[in-house]
Amino acid sequence: YDAQIDLAKLASELGQFADLGKYKLGGQVSSKGQITNNKKTTLVVSSSNISNLRVSPTADITVNEPNASLDVIAALDKQTNVLLVKQLKADTSLGQFSVKDGRLPMGNNVKEQISLTASIKGVDLAKIQPYLVMTKAISKDVVLGGVVESDITVNFKDGGYRITTDTTKIANLLVKAPG
Known about the structure:
By secondary structure, the chain is mainly β. Helix content is about 10%, strand content about 65%. The longest helix has 10 residues, at about 125-135.
């Protein structure tokens, strides 16, 4: 496949069928890839570029991504209903993210639990701050700074997610909050 997507036009079209709430989207996505389907698996190999991404949930909050690339190799095991993320690499203005050999259950009745290892490099907390404000993880009055590098493992155990790391490094950490 070869796709060119205008996110503002897509959001307008989707608005006829789904409530996007107050979110406004903008930007362009260019994606090329291949989908291979057989009785046991569906394999996706994809390379995408995102430019001028804008997400605005309110008039005073807008998050921007000027240019990002995303490469994915993943397979859905149709017998177990588990998505096998063989490789995911994202290079963004926020930093670099990757997942290798992830296993994600795709449904409520799947016996296998989530399991993945992710790496982040050069993640700028000041650039992530607007995303955290948008999702209401922090107040817009909180100021963050610093650069993060980490390898994390995510598993699901005893009814909750377990996120572990022993390699996280934060250079020049800054956290300012009112009061």
